[in-house]
């Protein structure tokens, strides 16, 4: 007889939380800013999955191949009988590559995109009936505790170079929070996008089909729907360029005319050409990742790179 899938779902208050203040504060700055977490409503999550399939977007296929090529070594390093916590699990595609060899006792995906997370957890539970899934809808940029108890060793998985969305000092702090959560005898398997040829980077964030542009613009649609705004998507355009000095792709929405927009009763003026910052995607060297890991309290690391050194997967030991 087949085991029945066991899927639990927890909401850490994301649904009830009002992000209006955060949006208003961001748009009131001299450099208008919207946090990248607002990309991810259900449509945003779907568009991100579509981005990963674009020929220019090398990170997903490169990271996926690294995980495939090294899955047995990764499993050996991680060991047995542990709780696996994935940060920003999205469609939970990448963990499928490792599940059969890793065989975690429990899998805990964390994501801010509620419905997408719930669907992904259900689908995973059906596909892997032996796996106990504890999915949590949470904003992982604020302090949180896992909503369930487990005596098992904790290991985290943070793929997709989402660490690159944090400013460098914040990235180190975030890693140190993961280090505290996994504690001694745990670890973190993390995927990080490497510094490389500028053209490769610029093309990856400006795909010819315009999916990244749609993804960027969807942040306005999300805010219109959830936060009572009246952005006209036809009056903004996508821009993404690599800033060499900062070592990051900077993504903006550029106003294409002088205009006024209302957000939750607050009025904001945009001049023609004015940019709203939506995302940074920092790129790293191997030494920068390892330095940050040590600063965050991890003791040792194992590194895997593809032959073109586009992307790195690191297992960071917490001892
Ligand atoms: C770049 S996607 C990566 C998805 C997947 N892990 C991958 O590697 O393809 C980022 C994921 O993190 C989630 N996310 C973004 N900001 C978040 C936040 N503040 N708290 C929790 N999840 C967040 C998004 O919903 C999305 O699923």
Question: Proportion of β residues?
Answer: 25-35%
CATH superfamily of the largest domain: Vaccinia Virus protein VP39
Helix content: 25-40%
Overall tally of structural domains: 2
CATH class of the largest domain: Alpha Beta
Main sheet: strand order: 1-4-3-2-5-6-13-12
Strand-and-helix sequence, N→C? EHHHHEHEHEEHEHHEEEEEHEE
The CATH topology of the largest domain comes to Rossmann fold
> What about the largest sheet?
8 strands, mixed
Determine the mean pLDDT: 95
Shape: globular
Low-confidence stretches: none
User: What are the bound molecules?
Assistant: S-adenosylmethionine
Number of helices: 10
Radius of gyration over all CA atoms, rounded: 20 Å
Indicate the structural class: alpha/beta
Mind telling me which CATH architecture of the largest domain this is?
Answer: 3-Layer(aba) Sandwich
Instruction: Report the strand count.
Output: 13
Structure report:
The strands form 3 sheets. This protein has an 8-stranded mixed β-sheet, with helices on both faces. Strands 7-8-11 form a 3-stranded antiparallel β-sheet. The chain has 2 domains: 22-41 and 199-282, no CATH class; 52-196 and 283-318, Rossmann fold (3-Layer(aba) Sandwich). The protein has helices at 20-28, 42-51, 58-69, 71-78, 93-102, 114-127, 168-182, 198-204, 211-227, 286-295, and strands spanning 6-11, 82-87, 106-111, 132-137, 153-158, 186-193, 236-243, 248-255, 259-263, 266-270, 275-282, 300-305, 311-318. It contains 10 helices and 13 strands. Helix 4 (71-78) packs across helix 5. Helix content is 35%, strand content 27%. The protein is α/β, with parallel strands linked by helices and 319 residues long. The N and C termini lie far apart (40 Å).
């Amino acid at each position: 007889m087949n085991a029945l899938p066991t899927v639990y779902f927890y909401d850490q208050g994301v649904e009830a939380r009002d992000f209006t203040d955060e949006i208003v504060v961001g748009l009131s700055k001299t450099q208008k800013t919207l946090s990248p977490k607002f990309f991810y409503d259900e449509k945003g999550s779907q568009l991100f999955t579509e981005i990963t399939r674009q020929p220019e977007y090398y990170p997903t296929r490169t990271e996926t191949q690294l995980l495939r090529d090294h899955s047995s070594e990764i499993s050996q390093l991680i060991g047995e009988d542990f709780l696996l916590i994935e940060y920003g699990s999205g469609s939970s595609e990448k963990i499928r590559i490792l599940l059969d060899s890793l065989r975690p006792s429990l899998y805990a995906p964390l994501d801010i995109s509620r419905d997408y997370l719930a669907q992904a957890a259900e689908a995973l539970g059906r596909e892997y009936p032996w796996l106990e899934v504890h999915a949590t809808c949470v904003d992982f940029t604020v302090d949180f505790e896992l909503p369930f108890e487990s005596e098992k060793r904790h290991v985290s998985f943070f793929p997709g170079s989402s660490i690159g969305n944090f400013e460098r000092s914040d990235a180190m702090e975030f890693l140190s929070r993961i280090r505290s959560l996994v504690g001694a005898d745990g670890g973190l398997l993390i995927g990080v996008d490497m510094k490389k040829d500028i053209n490769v980077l610029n093309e990856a964030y400006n795909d010819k089909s315009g999916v990244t542009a749609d993804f960027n613009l969807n942040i306005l649609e999300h805010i219109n729907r959830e936060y009572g705004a009246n952005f006209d998507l036809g009056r903004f355009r996508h821009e993404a360029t690599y800033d060499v000095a900062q070592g990051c792709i900077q993504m903006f929405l550029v106003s294409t005319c002088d205009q006024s927009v209302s957000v939750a009763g607050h009025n904001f003026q945009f001049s023609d050409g004015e940019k709203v910052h939506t995302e940074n995607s920092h790129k790293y060297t191997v030494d920068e990742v390892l330095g940050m890991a040590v600063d965050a309290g991890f003791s040792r690391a194992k590194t895997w790179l593809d032959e073109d050194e586009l992307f790195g997967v690191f297992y960071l030991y917490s001892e």
